[in-house]
Amino acid sequence: MKLSIIIPVFNEEKTISTLLKKVIDVVIEGVKKEVILVDDESTDATASEIRNSKFEIRNFKIFRHTKNLGKGAAVRTGIKNATGDYIIIQDADLEYDPKYIPLLLKPILQKKATVVYGTRLNRMPNFSKEERTPRFLLHYIGNRFLSLIASILYGQWITDMETCYKIFPKKVVEKMNIESKGFDFEPEITAKLLKKGYRILEVPIITKPRGYNEGKKLNTFRDGIIAFFTLLKCRFID
Predict the structure, then answer these.
(1) What is the dihedral of CA 221, 87, 24, 90, to 10 degrees?
(2) pLDDT class for 211, splitting at 50, 70, 90?
(3) What is the pTM of this model?
(4) Contact 193/115 with Cβ under 8 angstroms?
(5) Which ranges of 57-132 would DSSP assign to H, the alpha helix?
(6) Where along the chain do its domains lie?
(7) What is the average pLDDT value for the chain, to the nearest integer?
(8) DSSP class of residue 1?
(9) Where are the alpha helices (DSSP H) in the chain?
(10) What is the pLDDT of residues 116-136, one digit of tens each?
(11) How many of the other CB atoms lie within 10 Å of CB of 143?
């Protein structure tokens, strides 16, 4: 099996080198990796950090947008250029640790699942850590609400529809008409996988959320509303 790891990047000069090293260190027996990095026109030192990295990456492809188009557009570029049997999305900000990739891929290798999500939210709010501030508590509630809406609309219980960690077959998504350019990629891909009849297996993971002062880009209200209407659109129109 060949796994394509797509890394959409926008202004992640502080984390991209460490993230790439972690991806390189991931070893999965019987699985070849290719790394596809899509720079969505970063304006900081992200590009130079990648060039100056002191390690060699096999099967490494880099694409750069000449205009900032959004995470969804960057993922779509990655999918278009992927040659793996399966695809996983890897954010560049170190919230998600690549050490979980073998765990997420295990059910697929065992032929127990076709689509696997890494869920951060199969738990109650953690008021001493992740949800210790009102803003992140709202983020948690918003994610659980959107996941509930997706579960009701598409007939399968999901706890974390908005997770970055999604593994799916390339042959399935390359035939989809994915339109999202921003964070609405998450609800759109989820909705269209479920509409095609694919069951999503969720595997618990732990993340290290960064603060908005550290560069977190998701806007709970704006992106949450867009996600809600994307779920409705995919269910009743697309």
Answers:
(1) 0
(2) low
(3) 0.92
(4) yes
(5) 71-81, 101-109
(6) 2-236
(7) 92
(8) -
(9) 16-25, 46-51, 71-81, 101-109, 134-154, 170-173, 185-195, 220-236
(10) 999 999 888 888 888 788 888
(11) 22
